[in-house]
Amino acid sequence: MEESLEKLQYLHAALSEILRIGSPLLVRHPVGWVQRGQGDLVVYIAMGRMESFWGDDAQVFRPERLIDEEGMYRHESPFKFTAFQTGQRICMGKQFARKQMKIFAAVLLRYFRFELSEKSKEINYRTMITLHIN
Fold this sequence. Notes:
Blueprint: H1 2-6, H2 9-21, E1 25-28, E2 40-43, H3 44-47, H4 51-54, H5 94-111, E3 125-127, E4 131-133
Antiparallel strand pairs: 1-2, 3-4
Subcellular location: Membrane
Enzyme class: oxidoreductase
Protein name: noroxomaritidine synthase
C-alpha cells in the first residue's frame, strides 16, 4: 500500500493545494524575546493566498503549481507552506495526516462521483478558526 500511495503525486498536490488555500487563522504564543502576555497573530489563510509567494493566480486552486517537470510533488519550504506549522512547532503527525488524507480521498473518489448541487451558485467562505463555507 505504501508504494501505491507514493504514486499518487497529483493527489498529494491537490490535497496540499486545499490546505494552502484553506489554512486556518491561528494565534501563536511568543517564544523567546517577546514579553510574556504578548502574542502575534499569524494569518495563515492570507499567507496561503499571497501573490508574492504563490504567483498571480494565488487565489486559484491549481495543484499543478506543486508538481515539478518530472510529474513529482515539489515540496515547499514549511515557512512558505504553513499548513503544518514550521520550526519547533511543526506538526509531528503531518506525514500520518497526509497519508490519511490520501487514503480517504482515494476511497471516496473510487466509489463516488462528486458534483456541485447548484452549479451556478458562487461559493463564499466565512473566515473563522477554520475556513467554513457559507
